[in-house]
Write a structure and sequence with these properties.
Number of strands: 0
Number of helices: 10
Largest sheet: none
Distance between the termini: 26 Å
Structural class: mainly alpha
Order of helices and strands: HHHHHHHHHH
Shape: globular
């Protein structure tokens, strides 16, 4: 598996809304089952989208050394998109409204079915960084089985931010709740800056890589 794919998957894992969702799921009845189906929904949709992207990239001829120009152009486009995301997040003002009563998220997470739907909804639109990670696998020109195994590995890495809290809530729910609340507070204060730095860094890397490959 290309090391770059794992690095990009780790960068793509920075997704504060997922932490908020896990914390909300950790409250109330049916804790264990709701958390599990939430993570399961996220994993299923993320892996399915990855398989679809591998197929589309192969059909478009945008991967591998034999299709250098389309592959480089794709990297450049992803880089520009990520830089745009970083600029948008940098300029957007955080919502200062103080919620009263249960949040909308908590109200919609009263059943396993809705928890499963939330897992799908949060990850149904792939981030540009995840797309770049999938493309790294496609560029490696692996066998079909190796591609699918590599994809499973990067999905597991990308979802660690909800997988670890899930395991904590299943094993030690009382202790995990306090830790997750503190984690959520940290993401509330620093998550936007972290997302800006990650998006800008990966975006610059992909844009420069794509530009150099196009010129050379």
């Amino acid at each position: 598996m290309p090391p770059q794919a794992l690095e990009l998957a780790l960068a793509a894992s920075i997704y504060p809304p997922a932490v908020v969702a896990v914390i909300a799921l950790g409250r109330g009845p049916q804790l264990k089952s709701r958390v599990v189906v939430f993570v399961l929904g996220a994993a299923i949709v993320t892996y399915a989208l990855g398989v679809l992207m591998l197929f589309v990239l192969d059909e478009l001829g945008a991967t591998g050394p034999h299709h250098w120009a389309p592959s480089a152009a794709f990297d450049l486009a992803l880089g520009v998109v990520l830089i745009g995301v970083a600029l948008y997040l940098r300029k957007k003002r955080p919502d200062q409204a103080t919620p009263s009563g249960p949040s909308k998220l908590e109200r919609y997470l009263e059943s396993r079915r809705l928890a499963f739907v939330l897992g799908i909804t949060l990850y149904v639109v792939p981030s540009p960084i995840y797309i770049a990670a999938v493309k790294s696998i496609a560029d490696a020109q692996l066998s079909t089985s190796s591609e699918l195994l590599s994809l499973a590995a990067i999905v597991a890495v990308m979802l660690w931010l909800i997988e670890v809290p899930m395991l904590m809530l299943l094993a030690v729910p009382d202790r995990a709740s306090g830790l997750l609340e503190r984690t959520n507070l940290w993401f509330t204060e620093h998550g936007r800056l972290l997302a800006v730095i990650v998006s800008a860094g990966i975006g610059l890397y992909l844009a420069i890589k794509g530009l150099v490959d196009l010129i050379s």
